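Worked example

This section walks through a single chain of length 361. The input is the sequence exactly as stored; nothing has been trimmed or padded.
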Amino acid sequence: MTVSFSDESTGSPTAWAWTFGDGGTSTQQNPSHTYTTAGTYTVGLPASNADGDDPLEQTDYITVTDPVPSTPEGFILSKKADFSSDDRTFSTGDTLYMKIWSDPVDGGNLKKAEWELQDANRVKEKQNLTYNPVENTFTAEYNLADLPSDETAWQWKGKMEDDRGVKYEVKDISIEVLEATAIFTVMGDGRILDNDSGLFWLWNAGCSELAGVDSDGEANREEANTAAAALSHGTCGLEDESTPGAWRLPTKEELEALVDRRYSDPALSNTAGDGRWEEGDAFSEVQSDVYWSSSVDAGAEVATLPRAWTVDMYHGFWSLEKQKASNYVWPVRLAGGGIPAEEAPCRSLTLQGRPLPGRCR
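Given that input, the structure is written out below as tokens.
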């Protein structure tokens, strides 16, 4: 703390000998002095002129407290290395990416930082963060599979210190770390099991080997029905011993249970259910385009050819299309003991007992 002092002596003094109580002195008439340690200080001013000295002492005149830490301008806890999301719920398969920053008080320079995670039993994990001089931030990453306990509730804290020993921190940030539960199971025979709905989906979601589809894997509604029903072992990578008639087009409800509108391009989650689908995780050739369902417009007149429901996998939105349109085909079949999704499309769509936002909505 910097304090300015003023001499108000009478008698036209010509010399001064300030003492500031911490060992510091000054011979200026109106000096400034910086106190670097908390405490109470006595200030003395023996001023003098041609007639002699006139000492003055003020006991416990200055009180200095520890600088009040500034509130960090921000922090981000994210599942993503580019910090494009700010998360509080993670799974044990995630990496926790951390970033903190602050403006030091009174012009100090930040020199080090550390983070800490603590569970309800005071089991801790803590490490240093790395300074990024380009952004003037501290960053770190941590694999949550390495946490020292299996607790799900954790308190996160970030602490920084400047070159004068002044400390800054952001603390008591609650996060959850849930056990990773896969949404999809890769069967290894061309099938992917949706663990929520009990349905098998064709691993290749854009297969052009289906009977009657064009070279891009698209067909009109009638051709799509035929292609799905004709699918069997040996086609589109299938090695499941299935015969024609085992596969079919999914219903609107079954497709709706698959769609995850938390994501786009496509509106589909990865195997773990904690991120957007990428090639091979778990499906292949998923198109951010329109797919046929087996469901038709229930309100259509019998005398007319009803339109059929389709889903645009870019955003996961539904529409009714004429059956002569050309769209993609994604066959499905029930797993043993599976529940038809049209009977319970949202009943089991949870992760650790919590509804999965975006799925079946």
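What to look for: The helical segments are 221-230, 252-258.
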